[in-house]
Amino acid sequence: MNSNHDQLVSSLHSNSELPHHCTPEGYQIVPFCCVIPIPHGFELASYCKPKLVYLLNGLGIVTETCKKTVKVDDYGNAEVNLHVLKVKGCIPFIANVEVKPIYEQTGCSSDPHHKEITICCTESICVDHVLKCSLETSPHHHLDGHHVVVCDLKAIPIREEHCQFVKVMGNFQFHCVKDL
Q1: What count of other Cβ atoms lies within 10 Å of the Cβ of residue 92?
Q2: Which member of 53, 85, 115, 158 has the greatest number of CB atoms within 10 A?
């Protein structure tokens, strides 16, 4: 790499006037949540850990190119092509948690040894985020479960008057690595 190229890249990452939000770290976080009503007479299981299944077939990777003027030391302004790698589309998901009868002695089940049962919500989150900005064209990229992961998954109980819910929330984290 030459020093002018390094200066251009440094200028791009420090410039707050970029047309898109560029992340030099190489990843992007997209929050999600859904709310599940808990039926009357039930409560969250004491060991409640939410589970989530999601599909990536509704997402695509696109590269957009735009012109950007940057200031280069000892040279002045220079116009460059900025290649913006974006992920666009929707991620449908299903989240679930386990509940149990509040009063175990009055709860009945088809399995007499287990009275816990799973309840769920379905949702879809739309995504239109920048993964990477570069002066060079990006190589072929793809999305899979290694590059789109769930982090910070948690269940938060909510009580409002005579109703109770559980809010399942977390983040989809998109990794953008050179050799995806």
Answers
A1: 14
A2: 85
Q: Which two tokens stand for residue 59?
A: 């997402």
Under a CB-based contact definition with an 8 Å cutoff, are residues 141 and 83 in contact? no
Q: 166: closest CA among 123, 122, 100, 119?
A: 119
* Secondary structure string (H, E, C) spanning 67-85: EEEEEECCCEEEEEEEEEE
CB 172 within 8 A of CB 91: yes
The sheet with strand 148-160 has its strands ordered as 27-37, 163-175, 148-160
What does each of the 180 residues of the chain score in pLDDT, given as a tens digit?
444 444 433 443 443 333 334 444 556 889 999 999 999 989 998 888 999 999 999 998 888 888 888 888 888 888 888 888 888 999 999 999 999 988 876 777 788 777 889 999 999 999 998 887 777 777 667 777 777 889 999 999 998 888 899 999 999 998 765 443
Cα–Cα dist 144/118, whole Å: 27
Name the nearest CA neighbour of 96 among 168, 177, 171, 28: 168
CA distance 157 to 43: 9
Cβ atoms of 129 and 91 within 8 Å: the answer is: no
